[in-house]
Amino acid sequence: MESSVLADILTFIDTSKYALLFFACFFEGTIAMMAGGLLWSIGAAAFWPMYLTLLAADVSSDTCWYLVGRFGTRTFAQKWGHFFGFEPQDLDRVERRFKRFDIQIIILSKLTMGFGLAIPTLITAGTLRVPYPRFLTINTIGAFIWVFAVVLIGAYVGEAFKPLSLSQQIVLSIIILGTSLLALRYAQQRLVEPK
To answer: In whole angstroms, what is the distance from residue 150 CA to residue 156 CA?
Structure first.
């Protein structure tokens, strides 16, 4: 019975892996990208479908934050921002610098995702009405680099998993990804909190 349930879960994950990666990356990008790299490394996912899925999810998620900025920044930030790790004063700080260095800021925020400034930066791009084609181009260039780098980290971790059995790989993957998520959240809170 127990092995049947595990087999069913593994079959579901295997047949739905790209859809699951898309939704996981849409809501929690970095960890899902690492998971994608790990899956690629152990041979459970093909590189190009996995990479393009993660890229599409990352750009889609960023576009949603851009649209939040475009159509309701202040109200949203005041009411719901604390759930997502940002406050209205974060937006004020970013807006002052944004007008002058929009290209550099969007790419840099993409490449420093774990430091907590990506969401306010994306919202600010919408708030300041950066033309969407320009935003999309800049953001996609940054995403190509960021997604690839994080996938490579996951693939490197996956190389260490190869000698393990499938069930050991799954358990260890869950532990590592969960610990990574907690560590990222902790680091984000420590870096963003005012001293």
So the answer is: 10
